[in-house]
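User: what does the whole thing look like in 3D?
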Amino acid sequence: MTFITFLGRRAVHSVFVLLGLSILIFIIARIMPGDPARMAVGARAPQWVVDNLREQMHLTEPLHVQYYYWLRDALRGDFGISLVTRRPVADDIKEFFPATLELALLAGLINGAGGIILGTVSAWQRDKWVDNVVRVISYLGVVTPSFIFAVLFLLVFGMALEWMPTMGRLSHEIARPSTVTGLLTIDSLLAGDFRAFLDALRHLILPAVALGLGGMSQEARITRSTMADNLNKDYIAAERALGIPESVIMRSFLLKPSLIPTVSILALDFAATIGNAFLVELIFNWPGISRYGINAMLRKDLNAISAVILILGVVFILANIAVDIVVARLDPRIQLGAGRSE
Amino acid sequence: MVAVNSEIVPAKSLAWAKRSENLRRNWYKFSRNRLSIIGLSAVLLVTFLAVFAPLVAPYPEHASAFVDFANASRSPCREYPFGTDVVGRDIMSRIFFGFRFSLTMGVVVLALVVPPGVILGLMAGYYQGRWMDTVIMRTTDIFLAVPPLVLALAICSVLTPNLFNAMLAVSLMWWPWYCRLVYGLASTLRNEFFVASAETMGASRFHLLFREILPNCISPIFTKMSLDMGWVILIGSSLSFVGLGVQPPRPGLGTMVADGYKYLPDQWWIAVFPALAIVLVVLGFNLLGDGLRDMLAAEEV
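Assistant: Here's the predicted 3D structure for the full assembly of 643 residues, as structure tokens:
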């Protein structure tokens, strides 16, 4: 099976998953007690306005027809008006999404790189003190919810030591670089504004670490255990017998096969990262799509809730496909699409 | 008649001896790892504190709406080991009662989630390649396409926020994981010899699924349940943290962290002790789950 067919099959599968997800979201949105038209215009609007709006929003039609209209609009990128910001939801998402992307990317980097390095060191120094320290830390990292990390970091690094800013993406006195990618660190570098870059990075660090620590610990544990298993394999013994230095064995023969489970679990970690971003963005007042989403949830802003969940579903599915491709590149035994065991 | 009876009795006691021998051996395997013992102790401690909270908490009346401004915001001292919150309630007592909500959440969610997840997974795994398999597993794909916390938050937000609806929302998100786990196990087990022979002997579907395949899935399911107690409690505390779970004045652990973090850094104890309590519960169930996994050799989880 070629790469293109693999991608095609995954794309078709993803479309069905997303359709299912949209039905699920539609059902959730319709369980809510109360009249969406009434909520949109407010309690004091006269009844005829509400009735007109009900007609406009297709609320008088049967459910499956309502779903059809909802999906059609969603596919056109029209998610309706947000009850909170009073703007089209699509505009809100365009504005808030890059902030979350920037945060999630750095968290993912900390998660992947940190986890692999810690896990490798731990396996390399097996049962020595370094290993024990890493194991205790990674255990604590796995079981601590990231909102607790966020609160603790806010307390220690933000408030007590005052090393890092605790709110938002950029200090007030610094001019926002012109938008190219929407990621402030990259935009400021493109504009050559080094001061803005440092400031954006300082804002980014605490929430990103709070988000990334859980996944990093998970990755470290998995990397360590796979490496420890692989160290006992015959081929390593053969290489040792041939007199190949331990560091070369580690780097050239052990690392790559040991990374397969680590990378496979990255997709799951990414899901956890997105979920936890909802709390971490709230705590650090990070103007991202998750904070937008949670505010929408707290105020029952259905259009915004549906759009945020749908977008996150798309992101998550894309991330899964990316992880599958990387795993297939790492593991020559997997032929994309054909030999993939579920 | 007498002869038959005299044969059965020793056989029975033999079975008992074997069972207790098994138990002893398993306990030995489990207890060799000090971390598993720590986990078990943490879980037992938390369960004890939760069950007997009205007896062991120093100020049981502080678990609900209670105001004592004379002792508001006191730092940890002898009368209040973990300090008091801004209206003068003892943090330690509230944490003990908070354990009750956490454990209830974990137990109820697992009780709601495991049976349907396991049954659907068994069916999909047994009828592999047929429409039943496709329908069930593609449905789990849909639920797994969004991070569980996000969809749980969304469901909670459209319902009235309280503990019951939080449990309902988390349950709706959690069954696909059991379905997946059992599906994987069942789809390999169904090709084993003992299943095939039972099939040839004309055993019913029910017998095949629940008496041949299911017993061989028990260890991984059990291990996953122990680990999941921790994760469900964690998600529950996250929901409480944003105000979609246990409602004040009731002391949910997440609710307490949310209330307390506004008073950082000066009154740090209001948020930090409930946060540590959450870590203790999740850590306990995880260590216990890891110990069970080693003991039962359930690597699939």
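In plain terms: Residues 17 and 317 of chain A are 9 Å apart (CA to CA). Chain A touches chain B through 48 residues (CB under 8 Å).
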